[in-house]
Write a structure and sequence with these properties.
By secondary structure, the protein is an alpha/beta fold. The protein contains 9 helices and 9 strands. It has one domain: 3-Layer(aba) Sandwich (UDP-N-acetylmuramoyl-L-alanine:D-glutamate ligase), CATH 3.40.1190.20. The radius of gyration is 19 Å and the shape is globular. It comes from Stutzerimonas stutzeri (strain A1501).
Amino acid sequence: MAVADRRTTAASRQRGLVISSHAMKNFTSRPVVLCLSGHDPSGGAGLQADIEALLAQACHAAPTVTALTVQDTVNVSDFRVLDREWVLAQANAVIADLPIAAVKLGMLGSVEMVETVLEIMARLPGVPLVCDPVLRAGGGGALGKEDVGYAMRERLFPVSTIATPNLPEARILAELPEGSADECAERLLPHIRHLLITGGHGDESEVHNRLYCRDGSRHDFTCARLPGSYHGSGCTLASALAGRLALGEELTSAVRSALDYTWRTLRDAEAPGHGQYVPRRLPLDLA
Ligand code: PLP
């Protein structure tokens, strides 16, 4: 290849273009998923989890920070929700520039942030929205004020395609402290079209993940329970699901794909710190 061609190729790569030695191909972008989530400095959960899980679905993550947290793999000790203006400015800049194919919600932290997300979604009519109703860290520490769950259910669920609570989160959202997954779903489905209640926090030998749809259909996905507890498994699942929907996969199939992917990331998890395992979301050989 001539020197001039090589220079063009390098410059084009920097701009994200794919070049063959013979001809320049038209580059088709991967689907863009807007993530509205918190930052976890341990890298196990939050935006880093979203980005990694989306890369693994061949999607591009556009991460807007909603909150900062202070935490390690054991637990969270503090958090700060960003000002509404900052979150709107980040999201608006991205929406004006990139074609958003799906949106993934993680930690919002306050009722005001729930309202901010509604403002953002008003600019994205018809775009699939996956709501991971983050209320607590895996270690048990709160990641939002008390009334956030109620605001999510009343305000965000109606505009969401699907929410992905684990059973403890579903119980809080349904206000049924001892409720079964079926009872929680019955209480929540008037608010949302699809609900995936995951069973990872139980103690049966198998994990039962249940997809409830407002049209009355229901799908059960069962997998083997893996030993240990994991940091960022919910973020991984919701992001993978948003990515699958962004790729155009049908909802039930997208749920199955996202659950299968998440299970593999847990099977291959690492223990980088003193607390929970961190899912391995990307292959080791990216070089
Ligand atoms: N988002 C942030 C910023 C977090 O820090 C956490 C947990 O610590 C979560 C989301 C939820 O994590 P998980 O996927 O383990 O439920």
